[in-house]
Design brief:
Elements: H1 14-23, H2 28-31, H3 34-70, H4 76-84, H5 87-116, H6 125-142, H7 144-173, H8 183-187, H9 189-192, H10 197-211, H11 217-221, H12 228-257, H13 277-284, H14 290-322, H15 340-358, H16 362-372, H17 375-396, H18 413-427, H19 431-435, H20 439-446, H21 448-463
Amino acid sequence: MTEHNGEMKRNLKTRHVSMIALGGSIGTGLFVASGATIAQAGPSGAIVAYLAIGVMVYFLMTSLGEMATYSPTSGSFSDYAGKYVDPALGFAMGWNYWFNWAITLAVDIVAVGLVSNFWFPHTPAWLFSAAALILIFLINLFSVGAFGEAEFWLSMVKVVTIIAFLIVGIATIFGIIHSDINVMKNLSVGHHGFVGGPQAVLSVFVVAGFSFQGTELIGITAGEAKDPDKSVPKAINQVFWRILLFYILAIFVISALVYYQDPRLLSSSTENIAVSPFTIVFKNAGIAFAASLMNAVILTSIVSSANSGSYASTRMLYAMARKGEAPKIFAKVSKRGVPVAALLLTTAIGLLAFISNTKGGSVAYTWLVNASGLTGFIAWVGIAISHYRFRRAYVAQGKDLNALKYKAKWFPFGPLFALIISIGVIIGQDPASFAHLNLEKIAVTYLSVPLFVILYVGYKIRHKTKLIKLESVDLSQEQ
């Protein structure tokens, strides 16, 4: 490994950036969990929840896009929080995000083993998990271009599957594919498609929020994009409409073709692919190999998530090392522009968490997973705050808004709306645990929040940092 001026290669093309942003938000949340949201809140309730979260995510992406085109960096929102708000916030967000994706990598490779057992039930699951981890490590070790190309095709599989699903579903709804399903009855259950009242819709907000986790990857890719001024805005504009199209249409099709109280909707999981709502619709349309097809797609989604996780956490650790917030070794990159030391540590953390699960340390593994549970939403909160401060500082320092390469619309409504919804989703994880003062459930559900606070307060006390005044905010465009 050689130090290459501490710099990375800008080898991610526009199609890579667009597909990474799109693929990061389409995964098991749509293929597996969408059925449970319909069962919980009804067709209309699920659509409203996903629509609201989709709009919120759009505002988050435009906020991130404005900052990423102004100052593209692999540290993304960690760097922006440190420059525009408070260095302590940037520090806490950086370590919080690295930890989140390192643990997600472990969760995903465990899931690879479970899903692979669908075809090979008598083969130890850890063999498939180990193979996946090695493959992901090699993809990320080679170059950022290799990562971008792999993620492009992995995401393409998901997109093609959704398009095929929508075609089959719509053909079934309109009777082109014969079925005796009462579409209107399925869509009008409860009160015009709403079941369980506002509380049920709010609970689906949480699931929808998890489904959209990963869209913030676009900010990290900006640091290695060939032309971030063009690729980032293009990706944001394309991805928003595609996400709404895919998610809302997919949930509508599932709602129309599967009765909301169908017990199979609540049974779907990465361990039970046979009852994914996508599988049910394909099977009803007469596609005999539906379960195997969806198993392959879900396996692709999990590998894609693990691949993105390895990339995101590696780049975040590299960016923090460059700022002196992590050991300097992690700021070194290979001749191909890959931060190898950061990649090795991230892979090692994923491996350790994976081993803790396979060797009987399930309690430790569960706590690791819980500790990373809300970190994605904490990152969203940080993005909203950072953009709000960036734009106010930009104006306060007398700069021309028209000079921005990409300007987020509806400021300040956008970041404030995203901030309120993100905080609401965090609080709404398990309000019943507070109502009943169930300390164990509170600890399990909200563990990532005190960990973030400890990082923030610890750095603040040690370095005596303060909220940066708008007039003193560093608006340099160093990359």
